[in-house]
Specification:
Pfam families: ABC_tran
Strand content: 25-35%
Shape: elongated
CATH architecture of the largest domain: 3-Layer(aba) Sandwich
Order of helices and strands: EEEHEEHEHHHEHEHEEHEEEHEH
Bound molecules: adenosine-5'-triphosphate
Helix content: 25-40%
Oligomer: single chain
Keywords: ATP-binding, Nucleotide-binding, Transport
Number of strands: 14
CATH class of the largest domain: Alpha Beta
Number of helices: 10
CATH topology of the largest domain: Rossmann fold
InterPro entries: AAA+_ATPase, ABC_transporter-like_ATP-bd, ABC_transporter_ATP-binding, P-loop_NTPase
CATH superfamily of the largest domain: P-loop containing nucleotide triphosphate hydrolases
Protein name: ABC-2 type transport system ATP-binding protein
Organism: Terribacillus aidingensis
Largest sheet: 6 strands, mixed
Length: 298
């Protein structure tokens, strides 16, 4: 378990993080979302033990991470700007990691390198996207318990992004690895993360479990008979409503069965429970909290 407890950080006089707290549970993927300058990289560097917070604490398996060599052996931090040893080839980078990480799996590295069709050339000679793929192969073959990645999917093509997501989900399920991943892009995180935290101007403004979130908000399209009473709607926590002709569209914060039962009892002419994207849920939830998500995320 990674636990950040009320971490605050100032650079010079600027408050960059203000009492940020969250947890990455074992065997789950946590998506840290926020716009440029929100504080994501700073949070990740503190969690990886590279930077020290001014206030609060970071605990990994209950132990402080800063200057803790034993814990750092079990963490891989993939920064947004990658670094490889100059002149090192793909295989040489593997040897370097093998010396550093006790869980290194050479067979897995060889498999991943061939799956990504990476030639054994100097890593610095690869394109940015290919270097990112090498970084993934290294990270996954090191079999860390904790994988912290700063915008790792940026600049990768759709096929590679899908392949990487599949590999991550697999390792999380099989080895109980915990992943913290940052992104600007909510849609990218939709089918990957268990939990999402949105950081804005150094504060955690919303944190949710995605399964809970999806089961708590419903989108209903319905039409009633002419002149039919709509009083029953007053019982609902309506986040958003629209009306086109006789068709009503509602976004409601409630359990699906409750909503279905309530509407079915009115014998509507039309009743459809529609799928909701994560983006829509965030727009309505954050709108309610006074934030316009389109100004916060891509
Ligand atoms: N070493 C530093 N010295 C001074 N200010 C810094 C330093 N590192 C980060 N900052 C400031 O802290 C704030 C948060 O930066 P951070 O890199 O954590 O944001 P981010 O959410 O990762 O942004 P991006 O999406 O653009 O990468 C910014 O205002 C940035 O200028």
């Amino acid at each position: 378990m990674i636990k950040a407890v009320e971490i605050s950080k100032k650079f010079e006089r600027k408050q960059v993080l203000d009492q940020v707290g969250f947890q990455v549970r074992p065997g789950t993927i946590y998506g840290l979302l926020g716009s440029n300058g929100a504080g994501k990289t700073t949070i990740m560097r503190i969690l990886a033990g590279i930077l020290k917070q001014d206030k609060g604490c970071v605990l990994i398996d209950g132990k402080a991470v800063f200057e803790n060599v034993e814990i750092k052996q079990r963490i891989i931090f993939m920064p947004d700007i990658l670094y490889f040893l100059p002149q090192y080839t793909v295989k040489q980078m593997g040897k370097y990691y093998a010396d550093m990480y006790a869980n290194w799996d050479q067979q897995r590295y060889d498999q991943l390198i061939s799956q990504f069709q990476l030639e054994n050339k100097k890593v610095s000679s690869f394109s940015k996207g290919m270097q990112r793929q090498v970084a993934f192969c290294l990270a996954l073959a090191a079999k860390p318990d904790y994988l912290i990645m700063d915008e790792p999917l940026d600049g990768l093509d759709a096929v590679v992004r899908q392949r990487i997501k599949g590999l991550l989900i697999n390792d999380v399920a099989e080895r109980n690895m915990s992943v913290l991943i940052s992104s600007h892009n909510l849609r990218e995180m939709e089918n990957l993360c268990d939990d999402i935290g949105i950081v804005h101007k150094g504060k955690m403004i919303l944190e949710r479990n995605l399964d809970d979130m999806k089961s708590e908000v419903q989108k209903v399209q319905f039409a009633l008979r002419k002149g039919q009473d709509t009083q029953f709607l007053n019982k609902l926590n309506i986040l958003h409503q629209e009306k086109r002709g006789s068709i009503h569209l509602l976004i409601i914060k409630a359990d699906r069965h409750e909503v279905e039962a309530l509407f079915a009892a009115q014998h509507p002419v039309v009743l459809d429970m529609l799928p909701l994207s994560l983006e829509e849920i965030f727009i309505y939830e954050m709108g309610g909290a006074g934030y316009a998500i389109e100004n916060i995320l891509d």
